[in-house]
Design brief:
The structure is a homodimer of 205-residue chains. Chain A is built from 10 helices and no strands. The N and C termini of chain A lie far apart (61 Å). Chain A has 2 domains: 54 residues, Orthogonal Bundle (Arc Repressor Mutant, subunit A), CATH 1.10.10; 134 residues, no CATH class. In chain A, 38% of the residues are buried. With 205 residues, chain A is an all-alpha fold. The longest helix of chain A is centred in the middle third of the chain and has 28 residues. Helix content of chain A is 75%, strand content 0%. The radius of gyration of chain A is 20 Å and the shape is elongated. At the A-B interface, helix 1, helix 7, helix 8, helix 9 and helix 10 of A face helix 1, helix 7, helix 8, helix 9 and helix 10 of B. Chain A binds a DNA duplex (30 and 30 nucleotides) through helix 3.
DNA sequence: CTTGACAGCTAATCGCAATTAGCTTATAAT
DNA sequence: ATTATAAGCTAATTGCGATTAGCTGTCAAG
């Protein structure tokens, strides 16, 4: 019934593991449980399937981003919420972000696919940079800027604080994407990272 | 004359831009300046070319790593050299590492190729993790451990210090790999990162 | 009932890309 | 000089993989 949607799902799974060029339409069809020619009742070409995935991604990002408070749009007003943030809050926030990125099926596959295809298409490169670099950094920079102003954290360059906070998260994410068995170890290191971050930038001494 | 070598170079260039599956042997041949069938005088298949590249990479890494002091092998003895390290030294070290990774032709292509192929072959995944995560972290952890012991830096978990130092370098590297025009901006942010790192972990204050 | 559109199938088609065959030339060793 | 080998070329060959043609069954609308 919702074959059309299932094709996208299975195709995304395969693209994220092998890359567009190494996936055969017959594989997609098999994963869906139909024969290759039947795909063409739903999409007019392999490229068309890819484009549909991309469209869906772009649509879903805005919701997901605002849900996670990553997009940086309204960071300042949201930061009010965090004015009483403590070390444990920060740990929760960071591991939450990390584990969401890592485990959410859609987010993970999307990220892997973009990672594989990034050098072949500058649109994909920009998308990856936006979603995994610029948006998180700008959101967090605004948040830290607010926290510094409020006197919760020491006054340092908030862009660099955001980098110190986020780059390790991103780094560990790339490790776990290729070595899933290292998730536990990485989560531990992540927590140590946040605790130390908090001690360093926190007002307590 | 050294056609055999040139084939590897051109193939690496193409693989690092498009990925193995999207490169045709005819393209490699053209880049070298010969016809596709002539490639088979030097390598018995496309896969064989890929394997040869990989072998060369594995061989060259050890030299390059020890040259750059990344490998972590003899970090402790080397760390003696850094016992008088200052903020400027650290900035020089970090930007040097960053710009080397970013500009060295071989390193850049190798990294991009591994990035593209990482999810298709766990050997490649491990290689990428080793060279861009484990080795740099373990080297730097040993270095910071030494610097803390010497009293040059405040006493913090050296693994986390290494993560704080290195993850932003890696992060900015991935950004510049896909958006080369952001190199200047990224280098600036990198320097701010190191200065702040140095102020935070340094003894002065 | 019956018709049309939907979604599936099998069996072509079509093109491309890897590889092989077999010829040619140059050069280096005997 | 002769010959063997290396390294190139053009012209097949081969196989695979995307796509198209055309048939079938189902099922909702009239």
């Amino acid at each position: 019934m919702n074959t059309k949607k299932r094709i996208l799902d299975e195709a995304l799974t395969l693209f994220s593991e092998k890359g567009y060029g190494n996936v055969y339409v017959a594989q997609i069809a098999e994963a869906v449980g139909i024969k290759a020619p039947s795909l063409y009742k739903h999409y007019k070409s392999k490229q068309d399937i890819f484009n549909a995935i991309l469209d869906e991604m772009k649509k879903s990002y805005d919701k997901q981003a605002s849900m996670l408070n990553i997009s940086g749009e309204d960071a300042v007003s949201d930061a009010e919420v965090y004015s009483d943030i403590g070390e444990d809050e920060l740990v929760r926030m960071a591991t939450g972000l990390f584990l969401y990125f890592l485990h959410d099926d859609y987010a993970q596959k999307f990220r892997k696919m973009l990672t594989i295809e990034q050098f072949r298409d500058s649109e994909l490169a920009h998308l990856l940079t936006k979603e995994y670099a610029d948006d998180p950094l700008s959101y967090q920079s605004a948040m830290f800027s607010m926290l510094c102003k409020k006197g919760v954290l020491r006054k340092y360059d908030p862009d660099v604080m955001a980098l110190h906070f986020y780059a390790p998260i991103y780094f560990l994410l790339t490790v776990c994407d290729r070595e899933p068995q290292r998730e536990t170890e990485s989560t531990e290191l992540l927590k140590r990272h946040i605790r130390q971050f908090s001690r360093i930038y926190g007002k307590g001494e």
